[in-house]
Fold this protein.
Amino acid sequence: MRMYNPPHPGEIIKDFCIEALDLTVTDAAKSLGVTRKTFSALLNGRSGISPEMALRLSKVFGRSPEGWLKLQLQYDLWKAQQGIDLKSLKRIKAA
Amino acid sequence: MRMYNPPHPGEIIKDFCIEALDLTVTDAAKSLGVTRKTFSALLNGRSGISPEMALRLSKVFGRSPEGWLKLQLQYDLWKAQQGIDLKSLKRIKAA
DNA sequence: TCAAAGTGTAACGTATAACGTATCAGGTTG
DNA sequence: CAACCTGATACGTTATACGTTACACTTTGA
């Protein structure tokens, strides 16, 4: 697992889907078939890449749906790691 | 993306964590630090592997947290694909 | 200068999901 | 028969993704 704070996926989307293609947020949201509000929340880290959104991103901007979701996976894992105490859990070894 | 119906992750957990180690559901839930209800729901496909659960599974049964979550990712993607119509979305090409 | 466009975000509603406690019904087993 | 394991329910909390509507701000072009 990564030790550093991974960027939220919205930053990657902003860089590679909006700025690189010189799109507006409004137009990109329309192309994805979601509201501007939904896409803005994703871009600004207030929501994550859902499985449905991964399919939309894949269709409109390319890359695999899995690729988009793995981005989110890394971020979610890092966040979950911050807020959970697993010190009391013990490894179960095979009999 | 896989074309076939992927098993829900609970089946894999049941095979590799419960039956292979000859554990009871109750004891495995205790080891994971969750209630029997929560773990039973996971085993029987009524809930998925959350990021937090992935960390618990990794600590107690081994494998990477990413590995557990990718299992869930494949399943979620397959399900999302079933219930969404993206035919109207068009690929945006680079300028 | 003024209007239009782009943007972030708020309120409010929907649906889904993961977790908990408490409880019940059914099965197995010593 | 009693103890245990299991699946499932009802009820609650918290969180998230998505929608519509609306507001305030900035930038840009006629």
The mean pLDDT of chain B is 94. The domain at 9-81 of chain B is CATH 1.10.260.40 (434 Repressor (Amino-terminal Domain)). The first helix of chain B runs from residue 9 to 19.
